[in-house]
Amino acid sequence: MTATTRITLVQGDITRQSVDAVVNAANSSLLGGGGVDGAIHRRGGPEILAECRALRASRYGRGLPTGQAVATTAGDLDARWVIHTVGPVFDPHEDRSELLASCHRESLRVADELGARTVAFPAVSTGVYGWPVDDAARIAVASVRATATAVEEVRFVLFDARAFRAFAEQVH
Ligand code: AR6
Predict the structure, then answer these.
(1) Where is the Macro domain (predicted)?
(2) Which domain holds residue 103?
(3) What is the ipTM of this complex?
(4) Is the entire prediction scored with pTM above 0.90?
(5) Which of these, 25, 106, 108, 165, could form a disulfide with 69 (CB 3.0-4.6 Å)?
(6) Could you tell me the distance, in angstroms and rounded to a whole number, from the CA of residue 33 to the centre of ligand 1?
(7) Count of domains observed in the chain
């Protein structure tokens, strides 16, 4: 982040946020799934999936690699773009934290390319992908702090109180 970047925290539903860009905790297929991915596609409507399919057909025939990020329209969400990133599956036997940091760095890089000034992130990898939320919060916040970006607000939107507390520990 830079001197003009603020990190804010909200407990709630990321699909209800008014921001320039919403980050999606996607999978490599870019074709949807459960969790926050399912919620974004449900509320955002079919335009998002249509652009994801086009990305698979053009740039990402083998899928979006873990740790990378790519943008589509935000469809019916109150946002301009969805930035899809693929978090690593947690593995207690292998340190994949650099890939989780990369998700945040790359999402902010894409946000800068788009000119997004407010970006909402979910707690990437902490659901289906099994990452312990305290550790994920530490990595996510450190990665944002270490990334030079023109984004003015990085808003972590945490679904439950447990995740909110984990992020609050890191930010305050
Ligand atoms: N708003 C904010 N956070 C949410 C919402 C929401 N509407 N819904 C869930 N969360 P997950 P992952 C939280 O499983 O672990 C998908 O099937 C949730 O409580 O969505 O990165 C993809 O297609 C958790 O804290 O993402 C992939 O296959 C966090 O979002 C896979 O899951 C992330 O949980 C990705 O797994």
Answers:
(1) 1-172
(2) 6-171
(3) 0.98
(4) yes
(5) 106
(6) 9
(7) 1
